[in-house]
């Protein structure tokens, strides 16, 4: 009998985090007491670089904006403060990240799902390499982005904005630089997980270069940047499939309690491989006079991902022959037991390649008091993925499990690393291949006009129009394949993979390419007709936007007020093509095309009232929308009868007739600035959702569906009624989202000159919603709004002086309902447990002499090796537990 226990890291940093919090609060209290006159004179005259430069540039953007915004600015060319754009963005007040493969990738704004916000590149809406419309931020290297602005309130001239907010990524403007600038960055990377299986990498690198110059008497500017990363994939995961009741799907005396929840099955996997990305950015700016300028910007990235998955998967449901011998029920959960089950040893390989391209051409004319802008843009995204699964095993085994945490302790009766015993095949078959792909294309043309006025409350009027056409399609190819022989050749085997990190025994490992050649014949993935045809769809969106905005300047009680009031009219024409699958015994396809047109009128108001002592009071109000998820809009559908040839019809699929999410919003923000050095702010927001989208099962009349016919055996096919149920996305109405945000950024020299170089930044967001949604996967359970974390806390303490720099950052996010990726770009909702991630950065820059401009950098991401955890409905129903490792980067930067 083999007993396996999991090894866990127990490193903690709680005292440091607590100290940062106390330091931040003390700094905020004392900084407000600091004499304004003394601080103001210094703040506007001191020249800063490095960390302080990035902070002060971002504060200036926030202070001078008319909308409620947050901002990040690069410390220097090619040096945003994190290796990931998403990690930098997630530290802003009211924003939070979801980790994917150990890296921040998806961004939630103010407690909403990522698809309720939008992302722009230089003010233009972007395509996505995901299966939806939300942007995967790891496709944009931080080395090529100079600044990020997050709009939390609407602006009539902001096209493509989201309901929760809008993230605008910005590249450099070369004519804004006074001289030629060249920068190089080289970093090596090491993952603390090490080589967790035979041949697995644990090291990587990042290289970037930027060149900015001006020509023709500074009328022509050029910026070129290149960024390369080679990141080792080294992570391990344990996952309980789900917790289910025995509704006839479980067998054995141990599953006799019909009210208890049992583990449906489990898997433990090691993921190893490489993630590579190359990004290129180019900007050509021409400004021969103050009356005309033209800017062409180009961006392209290529992302490749090669991942080997080795592990074990064990189904507990009776379709696999499993039988619960005995269980121990604790609080309604079968947390311990003995099961007769058939483990499957899996050696799989996933390859993925993404290509993202964007080009924009902006032309601006100024004639007297008039300004006209013509902007043309085109962007494309291609996603290609191949998942090859190879299964093996050695038959049924007696397995004892005991959940004392997310990773149980197991006892197995057999050894799974023996070539003599383990053979190809098992409950999942010999092998399968899935080949999904996406194509996304977006073209847009925009024309803007502006008229300035010399006097009056209205300083200028902006108006214009934008037309965009987007097409996104999904194709899914697949096939199973049978082994020509079940034994593995000795030459194809690798060292066994020790799965003790996820509580499981060692398993047989093989070279997948060699085993495919030795054990399998040729295979060709294809659309699986008719059963897989509904995985293929195409969506078109034509969006016309017309807007007008008046910019305002006046006084209230003798104090300046500035802002804008505007209106956006958005007309959307959405359509989708796919197939309706009439299930067995009809087993036929019906092509389908459906869609909808709708128009939204969206007013916006932004006001900023300047109060004494560098205080500002901001008000934002209006309406905002977020168009439905693209995979929710797909027209694919599946229909069947409850008794095969007869009975009640039921169907499931997408809904191309969805209306967008829509809300009324109100924002109020108080901000106190200390020149451009620091600020404290308190903000509150309220959103009343007039329309939202959720999955629901409702009655439906199937009278228009051809559900009659004759089965292959001659039996008539006819429903007993046309009234059945349909499960698909629908629009709901009512409910609210509200929250408070507290933020602070203070250099501690404002508290005491002896603390020169030290500083703190911090923000706390508290969000709540009255909305409870339903999802058929969770039964009758009331679910929170997807993406909503009730609390998000970010803390940063830094030191920078005489070339030396230190920064420690923590981001914490409470439980939320999120999405985890599935095969082929699909996703499913699951509860994600509270997460705390700590990062460290150390640096030194030579400031004079021959090597001036040379700097050294040490970065440690996920310093505490925090686990990513999920649960099913309540925290005691453990689901996923994943360790990504501690990533250490050491490198040099050089700027000419």
Provide key terms for this protein.
896 residues; mainly beta; 30-stranded mixed beta sheet; 7% helix; 56% strand; disordered N terminus
Task: Report what the structure shows.
With 896 residues, the chain is mainly β. It is 7% helix and 56% strand. The strands form 6 sheets. The chain has a 30-stranded mixed beta sheet that branches. The protein has a 5-stranded antiparallel beta sheet with strand order 1-21-20-17-16, with no helix packed on it. The chain is globular, with a radius of gyration of 29 Å. It starts with a strand and ends with a strand. Mean pLDDT is 90; it is low at 1-47.
Content of β-strand: over 45%
Shape: globular
Largest sheet: 30 strands, mixed
SS element count, helices: 6
Classification by helices and strands: mainly beta
Uncertain stretches: 1-47
User: What is the arithmetic mean of pLDDT?
Assistant: 90
Rounded Rg: 29 Å
As a percent range, the share of helical residues equals under 10%
Distance between the termini: 65 Å
Tell me the number of strands.
Answer: 46
Q: Care to give the gist of this entry?
A:
By secondary structure, this protein is mainly beta. Helix content is 7%, strand content 56%.
Outline the fold blueprint.
Layout: E1 2-4, H1 14-33, H2 36-43, H3 50-64, E2 69-73, H4 85-89, E3 95-100, E4 103-109, E5 117-121, E6 124-125, E7 147-151, E8 165-170, E9 181-191, E10 203-215, E11 220-240, E12 243-244, E13 262-263, E14 265-289, E15 292-315, E16 323-330, E17 333-341, E18 344-367, E19 370-393, E20 397-402, E21 409-412, E22 423-424, E23 431-452, E24 458-480, H5 512-519, E25 537-556, E26 559-582, E27 588-611, E28 615-626, H6 630-633, E29 637-641, E30 649-653, E31 661-674, E32 678-701, E33 709-710, E34 716-717, E35 723-732, E36 736-747, E37 758-769, E38 791-801, E39 804-813, E40 816-821, E41 827-832, E42 835-845, E43 854-861, E44 868-872, E45 874-883, E46 887-895
Parallel strand pairs: 5-8, 26-29, 30-35
Antiparallel strand pairs: 1-21, 2-7, 3-4, 5-6, 7-8, 9-10, 9-46, 10-11, 11-14, 11-45, 12-13, 14-15, 15-18, 16-17, 17-20, 18-19, 19-22, 19-23, 20-21, 23-24, 24-25, 25-26, 26-27, 27-28, 28-31, 29-30, 31-32, 32-35, 32-36, 33-34, 36-37, 37-38, 38-39, 39-42, 40-41, 41-44, 42-43, 43-46, 44-45
